[in-house]
Write a structure and sequence with these properties.
This protein is an alpha+beta fold and about 130 residues long. Helices cover about 30% and strands about 35% of the residues.
Length: about 130
């Protein structure tokens, strides 16, 4: 079963974020299946906005560096949706990211492009019944 959760080991999380050149109050959310890590998304929550900072495979490959194949697109999409759920749980009302080379990916999922940012209300991703 797939699971997405913030890293429990905060020292390892800080080391991995630093290696990505991400500082501040960012969190690294891991996607796992059993004990196997499949990927990670780095996020930062500032006021009511969740910023998507980095998408990686378990091997550390940047999911944003090339047009995703079917498996990478699934991983990318699942990480993005899980990050949105994390943000909504922590009070975010908006998602924002700055990956101009992947704006088509975000646009296909309903994001608006505002200058050098892709933005969306949290309700685009997180729905309640």
């Amino acid at each position: 079963m797939l699971q997405i959760s913030p890293m429990a080991d905060r020292e390892e999380e800080a080391r991995r974020l630093s290696a990505l050149d991400i500082s501040g109050d960012a969190r690294l959310l891991l996607m796992t299946e059993g004990q196997k890590e499949l990927g990670a998304v780095a996020v930062r929550l500032e006021e009511k906005t969740l910023y998507l900072l980095s998408f990686r495979t378990s091997e550390g490959a940047d999911l944003l560096s090339a047009a995703p194949d079917a498996e990478s697109a699934f991983l990318f999409d699942t990480l993005m949706r899980s990050a949105a759920s994390f943000g909504e749980t922590h009070g975010a009302e908006r998602i924002e990211t700055a990956f101009p080379d992947r704006f088509d990916f975000f646009r296909q999922r309903g994001f608006d492009i505002e200058g050098d940012r892709a933005v969306a209300p949290m309700s685009l991703i997180v729905h309640y019944l």
